[in-house]
Amino acid sequence: MAMHAEEIENLIKEGLPGAKVHIEDLRGDGDHYAAHVVYDGFKGLSRVQQHQLVYKSLKGRMGGELHALALQTSAPE
Length: 77
Known about the structure:
The chain is of the alpha+beta class. It is built from two helices and three strands; from the N terminus they run αββαβ. β2, α2 and β3 form a beta-alpha-beta unit. α1 packs across α2.
């Protein structure tokens, strides 16, 4: 079963309080999304560490309910 964009956004915001999250359904199929996440907690972390935090917030849904997620992460300027 595919996930809805708002569910992905809510999970990320729950796991990363205060994050600004924008989700885009890349193919309109509910399986391929892009997420842009800006989060103060990313300061000083590598890109891999930032992505790991986002994946952790998705609570194991990556690769199951959520097939593909292109991530763009950054700390606020």
